[in-house]
Design goal:
alpha+beta, two-stranded antiparallel sheet, 8 strands, about 15% strand
């Protein structure tokens, strides 16, 4: 019996350590989307701790752009996509460390010890020495009380945004701009940006016209088919 020595690509899940090959009709298939055993989509990303996942999610919430677009039903749809800088930062190789993520999310020390539970919810960060968030000023007359200053809050957030983006660019440069385009994180962020782009270019009237033309064409083809059947 003839035999052949072949080379195959073996994949290993960074989450569950399962190893497998992906061959279709005697040839290597495309890179798997999920692990063949644990079914995780980020099987090649390595372990992300809970705090790292939370930091990445918080950064995406802050550094995202919301765009609106018309829908087929005359309503307004909303798309949220990361900024180009944020998408690049989260896709660099090696990926941002927990310390780098914390620094980027807290470029100004007014937030106090890091314990981020949302974009503007800083539960657990208050101390007697450090204010809780931007714009909250201690009231000297009442111990432990604060008053909110909108102008101060807006100015601090503006500075925070400016410094955050400078820090992200510095960290990207420290990796020499190397982007892991094979990662599932990169693919996800790219897909969000592509969806937002396509939605912004969507024109309901053209879509309705295209649907109507297709219906007319189908009706014409159906009539022609009936005539042919009657003629035979």
């Amino acid at each position: 019996m003839p035999y052949h020595i072949i080379e195959v690509t073996e994949y290993e899940c960074a989450k569950c350590s399962y190893k497998w090959i992906n061959r279709i009709n005697g040839k290597d298939g495309r890179k798997p989307i999920r692990c063949a055993k644990c079914k995780r989509w980020d099987w090649e990303e390595g372990f992300l701790s809970i705090i790292e996942k939370r930091l990445r999610r918080d950064l995406l919430r802050i550094e995202s752009v919301e765009t609106s677009h018309p829908t087929m039903f005359g309503e307004t749809g909303i798309n949220i996509a990361p900024t180009d800088l944020c998408a690049t930062f989260l896709s660099i190789y090696p990926r941002p460390t927990v310390q780098e993520l914390e620094t980027v999310l807290n470029p100004i020390s007014y937030f106090g010890p890091y314990n981020h539970f949302g974009v503007r919810s800083h539960a657990g960060t208050c101390t007697e020495q450090i204010d809780c968030g931007p714009g909250w000023i201690p009231t000297p007359e009442e111990s432990g009380s604060y008053r909110y200053d909108r102008e101060m809050a807006d100015e601090m957030e503006r500075k925070e945004l400016e410094i955050r983006r400078e820090l992200m660019q510095q960290i990207i440069d420290s990796r020499e701009g190397i982007i892991n385009t094979n990662s599932t994180h990169y693919a996800y962020l790219a897909s969000r940006k592509q969806i937002a782009k396509e939605s912004s270019e969507f024109e309901p009237n053209k879509m309705r016209d295209a649907i109507e033309q297709k219906k007319v064409q189908e009706e014409v083809e159906e009539r022609e088919q009936k005539l042919e059947e009657e003629g035979t």
